[in-house]
Amino acid sequence: MPPRKQVTYSQRPNHAARSAHARGEREFRTYDTSYIRPKRSKGPVIFSIVLAVVVLGGLAWGALTLFNSCSGTSVELLASGEEATIVVEQGAGAKDIGNQLVEKRLVGSASDFTKRVNELGVDAQLKPGTYTFAGGTSLDDIIKQLAAGPDMGNALTIPEGYKLSDIAAAVATASEGRITAETFTAAAFDASAYAGSYSFLADAGTNSLEGFLFPKTYAVADDATADSLIRLMLDQFQKETASLDWSYPQSQGLSIYDAVKLASIVEKESSGDEQIRAQVAAVFYNRLETTGEPSYGFLQSDATTAYEVGHDPSGDEVHSETPYSTYTNQGLPPTPICSPGLDCLKAVCAPDQESLGKYFFFYFEGDNYYFTETYDEHISTFS
């Protein structure tokens, strides 16, 4: 009996895809004028004045040069009507961006840029992408655009729960046909081609990249290729999962690849609620650890068969002797069944502790989930 009541796989919830300068007051000293020097010839006085002007001018020029050297304000800014383009790489900080802006003569000082970014509290919100700014654009307007993100006219949005075939179709649309679905699918067909650059693919073997093309919105550049887009998605997976602790799934004998398989099932079988995802993950862990009775020891997820047949499966289809049937095969399916979001990966890394070893069944109606310990309780909750 399935551990859930019903689910529609063709429709999953999409979850999208953070003081002015101190002014140094000049100190003026008032000198005592009660003592008046005797008059002297004008020649030496004029010479002294000229000398003083030269000395003071030299000091002022030296100070200005030193200030410009330290602050970067000696840059001749781009004229109004001219444009310059910068590329903000993934993970680039305000300092790196500021240096680019100075190099392109869009701002006069990298330090002024970083200071203003910090003042506005948007240092964590500067988004990667390609930006074109006109000469004369104000510092605040530049920062505002960087926080809003690049013009995503050719945006590629990958929602959580998309399969490789869905992603390939979305790529074809976003690239206006320059990258066909077939080309993208072929490029993502063999994970071993990318394993050398991404260690988390070590156990994926020659299976496809299903499950690792991270859900997010990406900008599709005019010169983008299937390979460059795949690397953007794998880079994002690496970045998003960098802080995850894989020790729990590994303690259960699962590799990262296995954990992604399980997370992809949790993605299809749970709502967007963090607690629900953690409980659903716990139910599947409980079943993976149980042998013998299929009602308890098989995952029994319709979602795995839905992936294989491409639609909501019938009772006969879920019980068929096929590789993705988790009714007739114990353990995980051969590959992930979709691209799970970060929440589902977190749930697999940290399942609900109170549910572990306790719940073996669940079903849901709308957003309401019901977890039970035994088959009889499971039946009675919705009979």
Short synopsis of the structure:
With 383 residues, this protein is mostly helical. The protein has 16 helices and six strands. The strands form three sheets. It has a two-stranded antiparallel sheet.
Task: Describe the secondary structure blueprint for this structure.
Blueprint: H1 42-71, E1 83-88, H2 94-103, H3 110-120, E2 129-134, H4 139-148, E3 155-157, H5 164-174, H6 181-187, H7 192-195, E4 217-219, H8 226-240, H9 247-251, H10 256-269, H11 274-288, H12 294-297, H13 302-309, H14 315-318, H15 342-349, E5 361-365, E6 368-372, H16 375-382
Antiparallel strand pairs: 1-2, 3-4, 5-6
Fill in the keyword field for this structure.
elongated, 16 helices, two-stranded antiparallel ribbon, mainly alpha, 383 residues
Explain this structure to me?
Helix content is 43%, strand content 7%. The chain is mostly helical. Helix 11 crosses helix 15.
Radius of gyration: 32 Å
Global structural class? mainly alpha
Helix and strand string, N-terminal first?
Answer: HEHHEHEHHHEHHHHHHHHEEH
Shape descriptor reads elongated
Query: Overall pLDDT, averaged?
Result: 83
Instruction: For the largest sheet, list the strands in their spatial order.
Output: 1-2
Number of strands: 6
What share of the residues lie within helices? 40-55%
Q: Beta-strand percentage?
A: 5-15%
The first-to-last residue Cα distance is: 13 Å
Q: Note the total helix count.
A: 16
Which runs of at least 5 residues are low in confidence (pLDDT < 50)?
4-43, 45-73
Largest sheet: 2 strands, antiparallel
